[in-house]
Amino acid sequence: MGNTTPAAGARAYPDGEIVAGTPIPAVVPLPGKGLAPMPGEVTVVTNPLLSPLNGKPLGSLAKVVDRTKNPGFPFWIAGMEDLIGHRPPTPPLDMLTKAKAEALKASGNPLWAQLQPNQADGFDGGLPRHGVKGYAAGGVTHTVTTRLDFSKEFEKAVPVYYPEEGTDLEQLAMAFHAKRTHPTVKLDLAGVATAATFTTNGSGGPVVGAPFHNPCIDDQGTVLKPGVVGTFFSGESLTGMSTRGSSIFNSDTPRIYKGTNLQFDAVLNKTGYHYPQQRIVALWQDVAPIISKQKPPEPLVMRANTFDCTVFHHSNLVPGAYEIDDYQVRTRPTSSASTSTCPSGT
After folding, report:
1. CA neighbor of 85 nearest in space, from 62, 115, 107, 52
2. Which residue from 75, 132, 204, 216 could staple onto 345, CB 3.0 to 4.6 Å apart?
3. Residue 219, CB half-sphere, CA atoms under 13 Å: how many?
4. Cα separation of 103 and 3, whole Å?
5. How far is residue 201's CA from residue 214's CA, in Å, rounded to a whole number?
6. CA nearest 6: which of 56, 62, 57?
7. With a threshold of 0.70, does the pTM exceed it?
């Protein structure tokens, strides 16, 4: 790596332009802290797609050799072996429906034991979880670049589909983070290694909206289930853990907020000055009243008490194009009609 080029077969980051990939700098261990376990074997391979401009390979792709062991971030992310240089797909379980959650939970696979189907409310708009390859794979776009219009729209694309419940590698990563501790070693200031543990989330498996890290846990790694009183750092000393608490809004029965991006004609004053392409976030049940001017728009504020757990379902209803007005030209940004989920612990 003296010339910044990874050795052949070395663990390296794939790159959309560089065939050999880019080197991964070594991380200096923190003395006294357990080292992250060694990940599964990973290398880079040449992207088989060729540039339509110069005929050269379009960089490199990841290749996970050992598919029985967590390959480490970012190599378990869907698309690392297919779509380098392009937007990755949505996270696993992001569009999870109640029916899909029920099917996973009933499958008998312990990985899905923590899923609560009543929390799931995803909707993919008819387009399953996917990534898109570019021009070299046969993609076609219609581009307009004029004084009044900067639009770009895909007319043809080559998709790569991924399971909503995650790829084999994503599920390996889920299982890895579902465990609280992993045997490893730590180094002292003299570089002497002794046995230690490496701590991860340890919540027992994915929950709706959080496939790798359930945030609804206390500082000892205990999932905040109904009736569980959590233990948290209290601050009176470096090890103080005297803060205790629980909530009826817990990992199994969280607060659920449902919000959406929308566009509407916003009236700004009594004279009638208005902006027809105002975009805000609002609660689902407020969308129609705001658009029909039966309810004034207001800032979306999600409130949660200490120890509450919250799930936020987010959707996008804005139009595909932003039309020309007095302030900008016409543009067509990426948009979607879908619903995703994001949990949080407070």
Report:
1. 62
2. 216
3. 13
4. 51
5. 7
6. 62
7. yes
